[in-house]
């Protein structure tokens, strides 16, 4: 099946100026995303996981073309349309990108309060998302907004649509943002930590809602989270990021049952399960993530890796296909070099 989204060699850098008077070094760059490639088929949910600061949000903002102006993005991002001739998003004129954003490709952010306008009725905010992309009357847009709010299971949607954000709970606000994201029936929905700001019960309800919307509308989704337990409930495939690089990608089953990269193995050991012996502390990965303005030329995990050999520090390791459709950026553990 042709990919709906095909990301090739996406790299995002931020300029990082040396401090005047204290640092005479030339301007340095901060490498937030390094040569990231992945694709998502229609109807599929891909989970992008990694610790805070690993480049997940920067990658998703690049897909939406919402990076701050100082960011430099390179690579290619193809989003296929009905005729399956992919359009490359990074080189699309601004106006065309504005046409796609919010209609073909939509995003839900982590913090529902900051993503909503506090002085505007929520129904009007959803209706505005309709009017940006379609001609029609305000009352038609309002009806579509109320219908979308029903689709995300907001009880008494007609009345709730007249509320202001502060009158709604955190979970309800996140439902409004999901309504806003799906009201134009996007091909691709990007959900960046959509449940991180919510308490556990509400988090479970939102995950259930996303699963329902997925089966109802055949949504294709990029689901981003630092939380492996959350990801395991929602996705078909998993891509693991570390210090801006993709280090492993495969089916959910492959990643959780037979992780092949030392970092992924460490991450999984740090997640409590029913079998965890609670009298012992959870395992942690020793050491720290490299600073993104000084990412090593070799394997980004080298300084923390118990399996490292000399070539690991010298060359950025290639992705190795460990089993069909399962890749890991570690030739050592996977027997390519010793
Ligand atoms: N506007 C920016 N200017 C400079 N650096 C940034 C900017 N936004 C993000 N970064 C850096 O990019 C890196 C990746 O950030 P981010 O994608 O937000 O991580 P994640 O979403 O995985 O937690 C971080 O080191 C962050 O400091
Ligand atoms: S490439 Fe080397 S340093 Fe990197 S994860 Fe594999 S063994 Fe460890
Ligand atoms: Mg983030």
Q: Work out the number of β strands.
A: 12
- H and E order: EEEHEEHEHHHHHEHEHEEHHEE
Given the structure, what is the number of helices? 11
Radius of gyration: 21 Å
| Principal-axis shape | globular
Bound molecules: adenosine-5'-diphosphate, iron/sulfur cluster, magnesium ion
Low-confidence stretches: none
What's the pLDDT, averaged over the residues? 90
Widest β-sheet, arrangement of strands: 6-7-8-3-9-10-12-11
Decide which structural class fits the backbone: alpha/beta
The largest pleated sheet is described as: 8 strands, mixed
Helix content: 25-40%
N-to-C span: 36 Å
Residues in β-strands, percent: 15-25%
Could you describe the 3D structure shown?
- The protein is α/β, with parallel strands linked by helices.
- It has a domain of 78 residues.
- The protein has eleven helices and twelve strands.
- Strands 6-7-8-3-9-10-12-11 form an eight-stranded mixed β-sheet, with helices on both faces. Strands 2-1-4-5 form a four-stranded antiparallel β-sheet.
- Helix 4 packs across helix 5, helix 4 packs parallel to helix 7 and helix 7 runs parallel beside helix 8.
- The model has no long low-confidence stretch (mean pLDDT 90).
- Bound molecules: adenosine-5'-diphosphate, iron/sulfur cluster and magnesium ion.
């Amino acid at each position: 099946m042709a990919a709906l989204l095909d990301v090739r060699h996406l790299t995002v850098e931020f300029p990082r100026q040396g401090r005047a008077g204290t640092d005479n070094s030339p301007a340095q760059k901060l490498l937030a995303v390094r040569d990231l490639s992945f694709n998502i088929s229609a109807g599929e949910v891909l989970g992008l996981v990694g610790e805070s600061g690993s480049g997940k949000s920067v990658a998703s903002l690049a897909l939406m073309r919402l990076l701050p102006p100082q960011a430099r993005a390179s690579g290619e991002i193809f989003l296929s349309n009905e005729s399956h001739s992919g359009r490359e998003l990074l080189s699309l004129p601004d106006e065309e990108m504005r046409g796609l954003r919010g209609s073909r490709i939509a995003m839900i952010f982590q913090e529902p309060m900051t993503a909503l306008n506090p002085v505007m009725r929520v129904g009007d905010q959803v209706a505005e998302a309709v009017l940006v992309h379609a001609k029609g009357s305000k009352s038609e847009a309002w009806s579509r907004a109320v219908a979308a709010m029903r689709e995300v299971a907001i009880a008494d949607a007609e009345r709730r649509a007249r509320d202001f954000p502060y009158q709604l709970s955190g979970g309800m606000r996140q439902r409004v943002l999901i309504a806003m994201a799906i009201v134009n029936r996007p091909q691709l929905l990007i959900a960046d930590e959509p449940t991180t700001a919510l308490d556990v019960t509400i988090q479970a309800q939102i995950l259930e809602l996303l699963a329902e919307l997925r089966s109802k509308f055949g949504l294709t989704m990029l689901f981003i989270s630092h939380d492996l337990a959350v990801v395991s409930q929602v996705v078909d495939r998993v891509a693991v990021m570390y210090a801006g690089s993709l280090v492993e990608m495969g089916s959910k089953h492959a990643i959780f049952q037979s992780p092949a990269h030392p970092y992924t193995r460490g991450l999984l050991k740090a997640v409590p399960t029913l079998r965890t012996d609670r009298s012992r502390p959870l395992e942690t990965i020793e050491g720290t993530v490299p600073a993104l303005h000084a990412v090593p030329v070799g394997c980004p995990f080298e300084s923390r890796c118990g399996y490292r050999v000399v070539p690991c520090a010298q060359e950025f390791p290639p992705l190795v296909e460990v089993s069909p459709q399962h890749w890991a950026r570690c030739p050592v553990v996977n027997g390519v070099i010793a």
